[in-house]
From TrEMBL:
Keywords recorded for this protein, A-Z: Oxidoreductase
Enzyme Commission number(s): 1.1.1.23
Entry keyword annotation includes Membrane: no
GO molecular function terms attached to this record: histidinol dehydrogenase activity
EC main group: oxidoreductase
Highest taxon in the source lineage: Bacteria
Protein known as: Histidinol dehydrogenase
Gene: hisD
Taxon lineage: Bacteria, Pseudomonadati, Pseudomonadota, Alphaproteobacteria, Rhodospirillales
Record Gene3D superfamilies: 1.20.5.1300, Nitrogenase molybdenum iron protein domain
Family the UniProt entry places it in: Belongs to the histidinol dehydrogenase family.
SUPFAM superfamilies assigned to the protein according to its UniProt record, in alphabetical order: ALDH-like (SSF53720)
Amino acid sequence: MRHIKAPQPQNAQDQSDLTTTIANILNDVRSGGDAALRSFTEQFDKVRLEALEVSPQQISEAIESLDEALERDMRYGIERITDFARRQRETLKELECEPRPGLHLGHRHIPVYRAGCYVPGGRYPLLSAAQMSIIPAKVAGVEEVIACTPPNTHPAVLAAAHLAGADRIFQVGGAQAVAAMAFGTESIPAVDMIVGPGNKFVTEAKRQVFGTVGLDQLAGPSEIYTLADDSGDPRWIAADLLGQAEHDTASRPGLVTTSRDVGEATLEEIERQLSSLSTAEVARAAWEKQGEIALCDDLEEAIAYMDRIAPEHLQVHTRDPHGVGRRLRNYGSLFIGREASVVYSDKICGTNHILPTGTNARYTGGLWVGTFLKTCTHQWMEPAGVEEIAPYAVRQSEREGMEGHRRAAALRLDDSVV
């Protein structure tokens, strides 16, 4: 593998200052509750809030502010995301079985009671971000969904959160919102798990509260890689890479190809398209720092290298995209064929865009309806099952020197044991 364009070396950043800063915020919110939230909101967002919760009137005004086309498109996206989440939920079956006479085993999929969805503010009003976390939670059967988003968020984001099914919405952002959802305050109830993307402060706060609450993942900057052979179209590839590069200056766009011509033409095409891109300031910084074009000798090498990268979004632009796609293992979401641009999943087609980054796709997938479900086992026995299982349990307990275990097992065979 050789590079036509290599990413710049990344300096290891000292996380100690960030870790300490976030720990202090978490502790302050845990002890100070709503007062601490108001103080941090004034400090970081320059907003003085009387009420932390978004009122029904504010939600009504947000929905009324939508133009007809925006509301229609928003509802269409909600329908698509809901439909796919429901189809996913239908694949998760409860289990009841009797593997041996009198031995009954099974499992249930039980939704968490209360979920907290962080909806970022940031550079752009990401209307789909609210839908991607809230809708799967409601489809899973979560009783109460709490949404937190920074104050002065675009009204359309509030409308999106409400229409997606959030039960309560709070105008609190950043690490302090994570703390509030994890520990609870006078206004914001503690949740069972926190999901949703955010900046490095939100991510570090999620890392520190893990264990107190469950998490979806620790997401980093957006990533997109395209795997292409000589049939790849440099214009389409460049457009897709820049579409993700405009998220953030830390975004990671890349191309892995078996064709030097495609690689070099994509490099030229990126420069051409940047010249007319309104978000070029951000996209160029991301491309210059993290952008990569890798040239591989054949598809085998390209697939192996892509599995090592394990990107958040992985596009396959080859002559046999379905065949190549089946050979890939590590990705957050796979986009098979050049028609399947990442932007469709990012916004509206139905699959979730909250996906693993930073090679985490080696061991996990993205947020989905199953994120909010606990698969909990159960068992019950009839006398025939006890007669078969108990002697094994007795002998195993004896070998391990666990007399209490042995007695509990033997009692079911002989009531006079204890």
